[in-house]
Write a structure and sequence with these properties.
The complex is a heterodimer. By secondary structure, chain A is mostly helical. Chain A contains three helices and no strands. Chain B is mainly α. Chain B has one domain. Helix content of chain B is 71%, strand content 0%. Chain B is globular. The chains are: A mainly alpha, B mainly alpha. The interface between A and B is large, with 52 and 66 residues. Chain A: GO terms for molecular function: proton-transporting ATP synthase activity, rotational mechanism; proton-transporting ATPase activity, rotational mechanism. Chain A: It is a single-pass membrane protein. Chain A: It comes from Commensalibacter papalotli (ex Servin-Garciduenas et al. 2014).
């Protein structure tokens, strides 16, 4: 728009100048010579007829120039451009195919790695479970063993304690008798009585 | 009016360029030579950079090529590829001739019936030769339309022959008449200005003389259109005639 606004006054100025010049020169350009009829139809004029030969020769020269010079020049450029575009398109297609392959390989590798990792995780979980189960079994076995040992010891202690109960009962009985009667009793009698009582209670 | 008259046809007179040397080489032939030089030179300068990404001038040159190539191949098909340079040369020879004629002090060689008839006969003879080469004597069978009753032959065959023979006449007269009419109109309106100024004086005739000049400017624009259109019509009709010769 700005360029047009700069050019427009120039255009108008040149138009006005041209028109003014034409008007001023008009009388000078006028001529009184008149052509009689259409000069193109004056076939007796050798200059008119000579055009036949000339137009054939000149057109033939132009035809040769166009056929062997101009058209090959244009076609070569267009062909080169087409080849370049086709080549670039091929390169782009190849690059795309390579990129697709790379993406495919990447996806494959990633899925393989994921599968491998999952397998390792599964193995570790399995091993951990097996190990912990084994540890639990061992612990359970140890606890069972210790429980059994403790029970054995308890039984032994009770038996031992029960054995001491006879003696304690005899001693207590002897002591009670002695304190009640103020005299001792034979140990055999105490022993028999204690044994009788214990046997009844047990 | 000071004895001034408009001589609209004087512009078509031929004058030897080399004076009295006896060589029949007029301004018409000079313009033909200039046209024949301009076309390859313009293409050479348009394509000299051979750029893959073309500039404006190269683009315009390539567009001209693509335009004619599309027209020729679109009409004649791939079989007509051999005639593409002929169509190309013909179109640009006529177009350049038409446009050269619009330059001041120049001459439009396409405004001479002898030139247009020669070009039209060239096309006509070429199409006949191509027809005979491709179809042999079957070429003459086309003068009897297929499917028409035999009884109509005495009427149809002369009509078809006449129609066929009228091709170069219509081809040449169309171009010739258009160019002559355009240049006569340009001369007439330019003459009005001269008549007005020389008859009424600069004070009165000057302002009035502006109108024909403005009209002439519009006519030049019209002639630019007509020049291109006539070259196109000549070229496309040539393509159609050659296509008939190739295909049938």
């Amino acid at each position: 728009m700005r360029r047009f606004s700069v050019r427009f006054p120039r255009l108008v100025a040149s138009l006005v100048g041209g028109v003014a010049l034409s008007i001023l020169l008009a009388p000078a350009l006028s001529t009184n010579a008149m052509a009689a009829g259409m000069p193109q139809m004056d076939f007796k004029n050798p200059l008119v007829i000579a055009q036949i030969g000339w137009v054939l020769v000149i057109f033939f020269c132009l035809y040769l120039a166009v056929k062997y010079f101009s058209i090959p020049q244009v076609e070569q450029v267009i062909h080169n451009r087409r080849s370049k575009i086709d080549g670039d398109m091929d390169s782009a297609r190849q690059a795309k195919a390579q990129a697709d392959k790379a993406v495919e390989a990447l996806n494959k590798t990633r899925s393989e790695a994921a599968a491998e990792a999952q397998a390792k995780i599964d193995t570790i979980i399995h091993e951990t479970r097996v190990s912990s189960a084994k540890q639990m079994q061992e612990l359970q076995a140890r606890l069972d063993n210790e429980t059994r040992e403790a029970e054995t010891r308890i039984v032994q202690a009770r038996n031992s304690a029960l054995k001491q109960v006879d003696q304690m009962a005899k001693d207590v009985a002897q002591s009670l008798v002695k304190q009640l009667l103020n005299e001792g009793v034979k140990d055999e009698i105490i022993d028999n009585k204690v044994q009788q009582i214990l046997s009844v209670k047990s | 009016m000071a004895g001034h008259k408009i001589d609209a046809l004087g512009q078509f007179e031929l004058h030897p360029v080399f004076g009295g040397l006896g060589i029949y080489f007029t301004q018409s032939e000079l313009m033909m030579v200039i046209a024949a030089i301009i076309v390859p030179v313009a293409i050479y300068f348009g394509m000299r950079h051979k750029a893959v990404v073309p500039g404006r001038y190269q683009s315009a040159t390539e567009m001209c090529y693509e335009f004619i190539h599309g027209m020729a191949m679109g009409t004649m098909g791939i079989k007509g590829k051999a005639f593409f340079p002929f169509i190309f040369a013909l179109f640009f020879f006529i177009l350049t001739g038409n446009y050269l004629g619009l330059l001041p002090f120049s001459f439009a060689f396409t405004s001479h019936i002898v030139v247009t008839v020669t070009l039209a006969l060239l096309v006509f003879l070429l199409s006949i030769l191509v027809s005979l080469k491709n179809q042999g004597l079957k070429f003459f069978a086309h003068f009897m339309p297929a499917g028409a009753p035999i009884a109509m032959a005495p009427l149809l065959v002369p009509i078809e022959i006449l129609s066929y023979l009228s091709r170069p006449i219509s081809l040449s007269i169309r171009l010739f008449a258009n160019m002559v009419a355009g240049h006569v109109m340009l001369e007439m309106f330019a003459g009005f200005t001269i008549l007005l100024v020389s008859g009424l004086g600069l004070a009165l005739g000057g302002p009035l003389g502006i109108l024909p000049i403005l009209l002439n400017m519009a006519l030049v624009a019209l002639e630019l259109l007509v020049g291109a259109l006539q070259a196109y019509v000549f070229a496309i009709l040539t393509c159609m005639y050659l296509q008939e010769a190739i295909e049938h």
